[in-house]
Amino acid sequence: MLSKSNKHYIFTSESVTEGHPDKVCDQISDGILDAALKEDPKSRVAIETLVTTGLVVVAGEMTTNTYIDVPKVVRGIIKDIGYTDPAIGFDWENCAVVTSIDAQSADISQGVSEGEGLYKEQGAGDQGMMFGYATDETPEFMPLPIVLAHKLTQKLASVRKAGELPWLRPDGKSQISIEYIDGQPKRADTVVISTQHTAEVEHDEIEREVIEKIIKPVCGEWLDNKTKYYVNPTGKFIIGGPHGDSGVTGRKIIVDTYGGHGSHGGGAFSGKDPSKVDRSAAYMARYIAKNIVAAGLAKSCEVQLAYAIGVADPVSLLVNTDGTANIPEEKIAEVVRKVFPLKPAGIIEHLRLRRPIFRLTTNYGHFGRNLDEFTWEKTDKAEELKQAAGV
User: Fold this and answer.
1) Does 42 belong to an annotated binding site?
2) Could you give the maximum distance between any two Cα atoms of the chain, in Å?
3) Could you tell me if residue 82 is left (phi over 0), alpha (psi between -120 and 50 degrees) or otherwise beta?
4) Structure confidence at residue 2 (pLDDT)
5) What is the DSSP string of 322-348?
6) Residue 79 annotated as binding site
7) What's the sign of the alpha-carbon dihedral 138, 142, 146, 150?
8) Residue 41: CB atoms within 10 Å
9) At which positions is L-methionine bound (predicted)?
10) Residue 236 assigned to a binding site
11) Is 349 annotated as ligand-binding?
12) Is 374 assigned a ligand-binding role in the annotation?
């Protein structure tokens, strides 16, 4: 976790649009997961996607009691994203869709299914460590750089879909560097936007319109006369999406989480059903950290959970507040164990993770968006934490 004791520094985070090749893959993987959960909430799913010029490859493991028309799901998602023009080099009607999906390994299944493995309870779907983070830096309880980076890519997408800049195309990225003084964000030092576009538009127009219609409406209060702008800094971005670069599920894990603030256990989210603690425990860790900060127990907080495959109880729980807590961190960890369910079955039930909600998570961050479906963003445990901690 970045120490807030640093007096003066610049921190950078990035985001990508839904047309970015890796995000196309995340959406396909989670779209297939949602299709399974919609009809069979106990589906076991671990789906990976690869996209490149004219091709989508879907592979992995899935055990479900429903039938999924995978090519239909894939094409519908690609169409929704905006890849509808064959001239782009990748479109929903003409791409090939290849699938290779097997059932979940019986060896894994027995460890995850209650009463079947060495232990009676439902165990974790894999080993590993997961992190959650929260800070009082923004109303979203997220670091400012990733909040602004996501808002920039959201604005790119909304302007494109509204037809306000008809030369915009689906692929795009944002990056913003925020200057901190005494641990607090003060100004935007540098803003970078790279957006796919049609061939006829000139770079000067792209730069002017992106600054006026994308950057200033989103970042206005953080900009000053020293802020540097880089818009399509290679000079052009006509070839993009899967035609310009291959994409793979799970390759934007820092974009998906905290933009580089906090730690990351390395496990991706998309395409995984909630029995995989890579996903469900990371959501719980965020839920815990956010409620700790919302309760006023600390100004920033990072929570680590770790699991052994097939075992229900976490092998470790760590609460790190970087010295911002007003009670001992050991006391906070003790209270967390009392207030929050930490076994996989309890996490899934409490956060209601067997619903088909996961494609919603794939763009603009799994955290920091207060949607009704995002149960892990609620601060409904803050008061209980305060009472249990005696604050």
Assistant:
1) no
2) 65
3) left
4) 66
5) TT--SS-HHHHHHHHHHHS--SHHHHH
6) no
7) negative
8) 15
9) 61, 104, 245, 276
10) yes
11) no
12) no
The response to whether 173 counts as a known ligand-binding position is: yes
Say if residue 300's pLDDT is above 80.
yes
Looking at residue 260, the DSSP 8-state letter turns out to be T
List the strands of the sheet with 316-320, edge to edge.
128-135, 300-307, 316-320
Alpha carbon 372 to its chain's center? 16
**Where does 265-328 have alpha helices with state H?**
277-294
Q: Any idea what DSSP says for residue 272? A: B
| CA-closest candidate to residue 277, choices 78, 99, 123, 116 | 123
Question: Which strands, in side-by-side order, build the sheet including 184-197?
Answer: 8-16, 168-181, 184-197, 228-231
pLDDT tens by residue, 52-74: 999 999 999 999 999 999 999 99
Q: Are 160 and 187 in contact (CB under 8 A)?
A: no
Which residue in the block uniquely carries the two structure tokens 């069979």? Answer: 40
How far is the C-alpha of 211 from the C-alpha of 187, rounded, in Å?
Answer: 16
Rounded to whole angstroms, how far apart are CA atoms 368 and 376? 10
DSSP, collapsed to helix, strand or coil, labels residue 378 as coil
Give 180's DSSP letter. Answer: E
pLDDT tens digits along 85-118: 998 889 999 999 999 999 876 555 555 655 555 5
CB 317 within 8 A of CB 285: no
In Å, how far are 33, 107, 190 from 62, measured between CA atoms?
Answer: 9, 14, 44
8 A C-beta contact, residue 359 and residue 34: yes
Q: Given the structure tokens 């090749």, which residue do they identify?
A: 21
Domains delineated in the chain? 8-15+145-239 (3.30.300.10), 128-137+275-389 (3.30.300.10)
pLDDT at 16: 98
CA 205 to chain centre: 32
The pair of three-digit structure tokens given for residue 77, joined into one six-digit string: 């998602």
Residue 39 assigned to a binding site: no
CA-based torsion, 109, 111, 114, 116: positive or negative = positive
pLDDT, tens digit (0-9, with 9 covering 90-100), for 241-299? 999 999 999 999 999 999 999 999 999 999 999 999 999 999 999 999 999 999 999 99
Count of Cβ atoms closer than 10 Å to residue 318 Cβ: 14
- Residue 275 Cα to chain centre, angstroms: 18
Asked if residues 92 and 135 have their Cβ atoms less than 8 Å apart, the reply is: no
Asked whether residue 216 is marked as a ligand-binding residue, the answer is no
